[in-house]
Structure formats: C-alpha cells, structure tokens
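ok trying again, last paste got cut off:
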Amino acid sequence: MTREASEKGIGAALKRLWSHTSPPSSREIKLNNDTGLLKLVACLAMLSDHMGKMIFPNAWRPVFTGEIARMIATSNIMRMVGRLAFPLFAYCAAVGVIKTRNVWKYALRLLLMGILVHPLYQEAMGHVQLGAFNWAADFWRVDRIYSHYYTANLNIFFSLALGVLITGSAREKKYFLIPILAALTWILRGRLDYGYKGFTLIALFYAFIDRPVASLLAVVPYMLWWCSPALFDSFTLRATTQLYAMGSLLLIYIPVKKRRVVLPKWFFYGFYPAHLLLILLLQVL
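nice, full thing came through this time. structure:
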C-alpha cells in the first residue's frame, strides 16, 4: 500500500468516526440527572481548590487532635472543598457518554480543549515559571512550546478525554480499543490529573449508572481505597485529603430525575480558562 493510499485510508476512517452518530444509550440514569447543578458545584469546588493552592495557601486549616489527627489528613479549607470537584466531573463525563450521539466528538472536544488551555494551566498553577517562555519570539516553534509546557503535568481535560474514550469504546462495542487506551493511561499515569484512578472512577460510574445499589457497592470501597490504601492492607485508616472527595457522593446519589439547573453546553469549556486567567491575574497584580 502506498503512503498516499494509507493516508487516505486513515483520513476516511477518521471521517467516519467524526460523522458517526447513534441514538443516546437506552440505559436509564438512576442517579442524579441534574448534571447542570453538579457541573456548577464542581466548577466552584475546582475554583476553591486552585485559589487555595495559588492565592490563599494560608487559608484556615482545621486542626484535629488525638487519634483523629493520626487517621485523617487536613489541608487548608479551600483545598479540602476542592476535593469534591473531580468525582463530580467524572460522574458528569459518564452521563455524557450515555447521552451523547457521538462519543468520539465528545472526547475530541475535551482533548482539544486540554491542548489549547494547557499553557495557561501550566503558568497559572505554577508548574512552569511565570513568563519564562518567550511567546513573541517562539510562538511558531511547536517543538519549544511542547518541551516547555507539555512534557510534565497534564490538565484535567486529558484525564476526562481518556475516560470518555474508554467508556465510549465500551458503549460503541469497540472493545479492542479499551486495552490500548488503558495501557496509554497507565503510561501517562504520572502526568495525568488523578492518573489511572481517575479514568477507573469514570468507568465505575458508567458501568453502574442504572443500578444505584451496585454503584454504591463499587464506588464507595474504591474511593476509600483511593484515599486510604492502608484500610484494605492492615485495616488501618490513614486517609489522605482525598477522603473529602467522598462528600461528592451525597450529591451524585440523590435520585433526581429532571434537570433543574440548565447551563449552556460550553459552560465548563469557558469556565476553565476563565478561572485560570483570574488566578494568573491575581498572581501578577
């Protein structure tokens, strides 16, 4: 096969994926259907987390004493509130896979957004030195942009995109993609926000979204293991601050059947860079 024919074949395959539509999944969502409310809470929790890290690192910190202090880690209150964000985003991503007509477009939107906002994320969150990259001189140097911004921590959009691709592959019965994507997630585990644990949570929400009891029996132990592996090794609670993420389950498992908070489709895609710009401006003022 010639290179031209190969490129045409790849292009045709990508075009088919992009134009492919299928009815939303027939599975009934028996957990919280009000994803507008959940996304709003998740965005505010994320803002609290990032502001607590970059702007208010000395915000009030709860102080536990005695045995509780040995069992449960604390951080400043804004970062503790921030632990609610990812499980809510993970659940909303699982709902999105159920409802979307094209999981590939959905994943691509997340991935493209992750790529576009990543330099802003790296600068605002202190992963690279503020203003160190010379955009005026090197805006056209893709290699320098990549080496400066994309070789370390990756923002949450990459994690959500991989989670959507894995669960979407299951929905579309493209099972051969799942081990490939899972292997990619494992390779990137040190760079992805929440790593393989994040996409596993999305997969669990997706797998049991129509079975609340089974979902609780799968998700609660998984999240307890995430925050305190010692609980399952030696039956000793030594929880990280990820323990506070358990609070998100109180919202996720409320069986709300109708959406009461309606947000624009692109709300999260706009809120994310806007909150990073706010943090960046507050750092330089």
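cool. The CA atoms of residues 32 and 254 lie 5 Å apart. The first helix runs from residue 3 to 19.
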